[in-house]
Amino acid sequence: VDVTTQLPLKTDIMITNEELQKNVQDAIKWQPLLKAAEIGVIAKEGVVSLTGNVNSFTKKMEAEKAAKSVAGVRAVVEDIHVKFANDLEKTDEELASEILRGMKWDWSVPEDKIQVKVEDGWVSLDGAVEWNFQRESAKNCTANLIGVKGVTNNISVKSGSTDQVEKEAIEKALSRSWMVDDQNIQVKVKGNKVVLRGAVESLFEKDEATRLAWNAPGVNEVDNELAVIYDF
Fold first, then answer.
1. CB-based contacts of 21, cutoff 8 Å, min separation 6
2. 43 close to 20: Cβ distance less than 8 angstroms
């Protein structure tokens, strides 16, 4: 059953490209770390393109996060470049040492299970952990360091649990969340893999549904096939 046809979304709320562009610009401007002048925004039928230069990878992530939070944004094309002043540049060896020290002091990161590679300021993370929050924590404690230009997170999640993932528990988690409208979301479980199908009204909702599914014990993979539906 295609749940996108079961219940109406807010498709009666029309939005123009100009309105969406302004909404995204306002959302970026609202972030304390960002200045509106740093990020260029173009919107066309739900696809938002972000351009510009920032002085930290954290700002780059915040701009993308802000854009995803706006209703009507179906996809984000991100072309933001991280550029540092000369006095903030670091060698790859310095960055690698700082990343390893940061992971050592972060209780949520099993640093003995993660390998770090740095090339021209770009960090690649590899390895396997038991929980997705550990994977995300490894990325976040890396991304916040001055000198990091980007992060490729190749860490996989391999749960040690042999129990079957509980479909009902995930459905309840989605229904409890005020950030997700679960009426048009279908949950399927195949062993340790969770599949989400249906429709939501923003990329933020889609990402939040993924995060909640990952919290279920035993999950090794989440396949989010949710469509973002909005009228233009």
1. 41, 42, 43, 48
2. yes
37 in Cβ contact with 67 (< 8 Å): no
Q: What would the pLDDT profile of 181-190 be if each residue is shown by its tens digit?
A: 899 999 999 9
Tell me the pLDDT tens digit for each residue of 5-60. Answer: 444 444 445 789 999 999 999 999 998 888 756 899 999 989 999 999 998 899 99
DSSP result, 121-152: TEEEEEEEES-HHHHHHHHHHHHTSTT--EEE
> How far is CA 19 from its chain centroid?
24
**Assessment of whether the complete model's pTM goes beyond 0.85:** no
Average pLDDT, the chain: 88
How many Cα atoms occupy the beta-carbon half-sphere of 17 within 13 Å? 8
Phi, psi of 117 (to 5 degrees): -130, 135
Which token pair is 216? 């279920």
- Local structure of 179: helix, strand or coil: coil
- DSSP assignment of 5-69: GTS--STTSB--HHHHHHHHHHHHHTSTT--GGGEEEEEETTEEEEEEEES-HHHHHHHHHHHHT
Angle between helices 57-68 and 203-214 (to 10 degrees): 110
